[in-house]
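Thread: "does anyone have the structure for this chain?"

Original post by V.I.:
We have the sequence but no experimental structure in hand. Need at least a predicted one for the grant figures.
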Amino acid sequence: MAKMLFLPLLILLLFLFECESFSAENPTDRRLLVLVDDLAIRSSHSLYFKFLESRGYVLEFRLADDPKLALQRYGHYLYDGLVIFSPSVQRFGGSLDQAAVLDFVDAGHDLILAADSYASDLIRGIASECGVDFDEDPDAVVIDHVGYAVSEIDGEHTLIAADDFIQSDVILGEKKIEAPVLFRGIGHSVNPASTLVLKVLSASPSAYSASPKTKLSTPSITGSTIALVSVVQARNNARMLISGSLDLFSNRHEKSGNEQFVTEISKWVFHERGHLKAVNVTHHRVAELAEPAMYRINDDLEYSIEIYEWSGSSWKPYVADDVQVQFYMMSPYVLKSLSTDLKGLYFTSFKVPDVYGVFQFKVEYQRLGYTSLSLSKQIPVRPFRHNEYERFIPAAFPYYGASFSTMAGFFIFTIVYLYNK
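Reply from O.Q.:
Generated one for you, tokens below.
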């Protein structure tokens, strides 16, 4: 009986260990759930899936309406990332729904969502919650009569050649994408005021979004405002890729930039690039090593922090010249740029303001393509004690002189007054 109880317990412990393998020390997603409308997508998009598997990802393919679908069990997530290649699904199977997908992202996991002209309300709803709005016309696709692909044979100019990429080596890699990306699908718009959503691939100025089967009316979105592929980095640093084309990831487009584009952007989505961590945050008085419980006004202090970037397999020093620290109470009293030793260490020194209260060391670092760093450390600042002031303050010498001269004058006056006949 004891052995029968021990075996399930051991399996449960191993299961929980597997579910906790994703951590800040190893941020690259490894277990991916791929939802498809048809398992034939495994063949039609095999090159993309082979790329993921070659980089160590474990893919589990499931039909999007599988009645046994679940993202978590016993309060632990079964997967590190989710790939939704099922644009026409009306309802997910099992316990999976729109709220479950959004909770998955809110828990810090990553998402790739591909739509097309048959995108369901479910897929559109998930994209909308992520800050991306697909064209409201269900029949609309992106059309470009100038920038269409030469290989297109249907004459509707819905297969377009796009090369308006975001200018970021972190997101798309250092190697320039020379060939245009062939795109057939629907466009979307993003809020230009949003700092979380970025257009990675945009349409050309001659493109517009409309139905090729009906008489052209005023398109809802036109030109370079049409986003073809966008990425989202949430405040918890979870990353999402939203594409208006499932065909973008397929094997059919040879001699184009599709393979390089989806490969490089997938590295970013799954945190192989642009993932930062900060460790060893320290502060102390100059010429001391121990971190004090509080500072005194006008103390000279030193502050340091180590920042590293994940390379996909290991942590490497992050080198930049725009990292700053604030010494903050209601507003920043001190704002200093940090120097670096090019080995991951950032440091500076400054004098504590002549104001006492509860301050914070704050580092708020946000840079295009990188995960954000938000660090704060609270420390009180006290005034001088009564026995810590200087015995004689140089600035008060005139007052000292006035006091002693007054006493001397009074003494002389007294002598003269008493003894003068």
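V.I.: this helps a lot. The radius of gyration is 32 Å.
O.Q.: and DSSP finds eight helices and 26 strands in the chain.
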